[in-house]
Design a protein that fits this description.
Elements lengths: L3 H19 L8 E5 L5 H9 L4 E6 L11 E3 L12 E7 L8 H11 E11 L5 H14 L12 H10 L3 E8 L7 E9 L1
Parallel strand pairs: 1-2, 1-4, 2-3, 4-5
Antiparallel strand pairs: 5-7, 6-7
Helix pairs in contact: 1-2
Length: 191
């Protein structure tokens, strides 16, 4: 299992790679809402690399390790913003930590003109128990408290997108450098 120091090293390797991979998707974007910001480390890194974009973070509890961006607590159901308030909403490794991902994704769609979803799937042959243990160890290493973890299968996530009439505009497999037995994907969605 990875330790906190290992994660800091890993993040310093992964985040520049992700910025490079996703920078073309941020052209023309002026405002971003990061839903379920957690430690807020990743979105702060993006904000430092894209200073002309307004970034706001939100979550159901304040677990941030980075605190420079505006933060708003919300109830996990209704975001306190008007329809289409943001060019982009981000759900980075969030939906699998919700009791019910449908209303969270629906709210992301309501307040954003586009949605970026990053989710991971178990590699073939990996048990749910193994995945749960690895996820809990990862969260512990990041000093994040969350016992709720319901990993998606590819089909279940795609079904959720379909159910909410969200169109996948792009899908990219994200290189994963950690030790967990997962595959990560980025999805750009619109209504």
């Amino acid at each position: 299992m990875e330790k906190k120091g290992d994660f800091k090293e890993l993040l310093h390797k992964v985040l520049p790679e992700q910025v490079e991979m996703l920078k073309s998707y941020l052209k023309g974007i002026n405002s971003v809402l990061d839903i379920g910001t957690g430690s807020s480390i990743s979105i702060h890194y993006f904000a430092k690399n894209f200073p002309d974009i307004e970034f706001i973070t939100t979550d159901i509890a304040d677990m941030r390790q980075e605190r420079e961006l505006p933060f708003i607590l919300f109830d996990g159901i209704t975001l306190p913003f008007e329809d289409k308030s943001f060019d982009l909403t981000v759900l980075n490794e969030v939906l699998h930590h919700t009791d019910d991902p449908e209303p969270v994704l629906k709210e992301a769609s309501r307040v954003g003109r586009a949605i970026f979803v990053v989710e991971h799937f178990p590699k073939p042959g990996v048990s749910t128990q193994q995945l749960w243990e690895e996820e809990m160890a990862t969260l512990k290493a990041l000093n994040l408290e969350c016992e709720n973890y319901k990993p998606f299968s590819r089909n279940r996530l795609l079904h959720l997108f379909d159910k909410l009439n969200l169109t996948i505009r792009d899908k990219i497999k994200i290189p994963y450098h950690g030790q967990r037995e997962i595959e990560k994907y980025f999805f750009k969605l619109t209504e």
